[in-house]
Amino acid sequence: MGEVHWRELYREVVDTGLCTGCAACVMACPRDVLGYTDDYFPVQVGEGMAHDQCVIGDRGCDICTRACPRFRSWESDLDEALFGRPRDPDTEIFGPVRSILLTRATDKAVHELGQDGGLVSTLLIWGLETERIEGAVTSRIVNDGRGPFDAEPFLATTRDEVLAAAGSRYTYSANPLAMKQADERRMKQVALVGMSCQASINGTVEAYGVNKYKRKIALTIGLLCSKTFTYEGQQQVLAEHGIDVADVTKINIKGVFQVWTRDGGYHEIPLKLFHPYTREGCKLCPDFAAEHADISTGGIGADDNWTLTLVRTERGEEWLKGVIDEGLVEAKPGEDDPVAMNLLTKLSGWSRKRWPSDRLPDGHQAPGLLPIASTS
Ligand SMILES: Cc1cc2nc3c(=O)[nH]c(=O)nc-3n(C[C@H](O)[C@H](O)[C@H](O)COP(=O)(O)OP(=O)(O)OC[C@H]3O[C@@H](n4cnc5c(N)ncnc54)[C@H](O)[C@@H]3O)c2cc1C
Fold first, then answer.
1. Which atom of ligand 1 is nearest to the CA of 198?
2. Claim to verify: residue 174 and residue 272 sit in the same structural domain
3. Does pLDDT of 371 surpass 50?
4. Which of 172, 305, 309, 337 to pair with 30, CA 20 to 30 A apart?
5. Mean model confidence pLDDT for the chain
6. What's the pTM?
């Protein structure tokens, strides 16, 4: 990339609102001069430094720009690196795929604890138990009495830890920050679980030669994602419906915000009430379908006991075949669920419309195109 570094990344991505807060730059920074704020943005931590200043960058370090999944021509570069070609914007609105399946764990405990079919947890447990990985960079609930709302980056290394982290929280968790723990423990192979923005790290490390993490990340599992909400916003909407966040045992989003409570209660709250509390970093994200993951997973099917599974790469295919061959996962074709397939196309099209093509800094590309005129 030549003469660019944190200064350009800050001005073109953070300052313009393109930054999702994925923390790839913080993860990759070899001198630990980048920190992470409580409101999910990377910052320069050098004493007395301006936000966009980096003395290491001035000396030639450009790793943060190479790890970032929103810098300049990221999407076409990542497509080329992972799939060997640019995507077809007319037929690949949710990104290139090898196959689309519906999957679920055959282990009852894993299936019950999983948000949908428990595929993600099954892959992680299998990877750990077969020593394909030493750890999984993921997210867990913060044990602070605030119910299943506060998520923090977490390095899981055992079946129990994977299961403790299973399920979905709709508050942002910058999972790549847990990679620092994997580094400290000198782990050689880890899996990365992350929302769409974080899963694109799979492509940046490949496209721009972030070699340390290119070698280290054995599998990236993406979570389909339209947006995350602030903790305070979710707390407020629930309070308006007479629900204390501390009483909540599980949440899910299936067209409505679903809430299960300790007393056995179940509540549905209109999703639109949460939209004002959309986290800032999600507002311009064009990627619903975790388009650069090895395997992308979601729960938009007619039957939420299954994980909608998009296999995108050869290694994704190998891992999925591994758990199916071992009898740990059952699978059926994605076309069995036309509801899921339609929603996948529709929601991917909606997210693509967010990318602000008309006000990008010089050198930035508009990713994908918008063939779906009827989704507005
Ligand atoms: C914020 C968010 C928004 C989502 N939005 C959609 C959507 O709009 N449509 C859709 O189809 N699917 C969405 N998903 C994905 C869906 O909820 C499931 O995660 C997915 O179907 C996998 O299910 P599973 O049972 O196989 O995973 P599980 O076995 O339950 O594993 C889930 C993994 O996700 C990790 N995780 C949980 N919460 C977070 C978080 N906040 N940040 C990072 N990692 C986390 C867990 O640590 C765990 O490793 C979303 C997920 C999240 C976290």
1. 43
2. yes
3. no
4. 172
5. 93
6. 0.95
CA distance 261 to 296: 29
pLDDT digits 0-9 by tens, 67-124: 999 999 999 999 999 999 999 988 999 999 999 999 999 999 999 999 999 999 999 9
- Tell me which H or E stretch contains 250: strand 248-254
Query: Ligand 1, atom 6: nearest CA belongs to which residue?
Result: 225
85 assigned to some structural domain: no
Rg value, the chain, Cα: 20
Q: Return the H-helix or E-strand segment holding 152.
A: strand 151-156
Verify that 53 and 122 share a domain, yes or no: no
Residues 64, 182 within the same domain: no
The alpha carbon of 109 and the centre of ligand 1 are apart by a number of angstroms equal to 17
Beta bridge partners of 283: none
Structural domain containing residue 128: 99-352
pLDDT value for 359: 66
375 belongs to a structural domain: no
Check whether residue 63 and residue 157 sit in a common domain: no
301 Cα nearest atom in ligand 1: 11
Q: Are strands 295-298 and 217-223 parallel, antiparallel or unpaired?
A: parallel
- Does the beta carbon of 67 lie inside 6 Å of ligand 1? no
| Choice among 99-103, 135-139, 357-361 with the minimum mean pLDDT | 357-361
Ligand 1 pocket, mutate which of 115, 171, 220 (most atoms under 8 A from CB): 115
> 103: number of CA atoms within 13 Å, CB side?
29
Both tokens of residue 126? Answer: 């299998």
pLDDT at 367: 65
Cα(124) to centroid of ligand 1, in Å? Answer: 14
Q: Is the per-residue pLDDT at 2 higher than 70? A: no
Q: Which residues pair with 161 in a beta bridge?
A: none
The predicted pLDDT at position 372 comes to: 30
- Which amino acid type is present at position 149? F
Q: Is residue 82 part of a domain?
A: no
**Phi and psi of 257, rounded to 5°?**
-85, 115
In a domain? residue 374: no
pLDDT digits (tens, 9 = 90+) for 261-293: 999 999 999 999 999 999 999 999 999 999 999
The reply to whether 128 and 271 lie within a common domain is yes
Tell me if 309 CB under 6 Å of ligand 1.
no
- Residue 268 has φ and ψ, to the nearest 5°, of -120, 130
- 229, 150 in Cβ contact below 8 A? no
Whole-number Å distance between alpha carbons of 311 and 315: 9
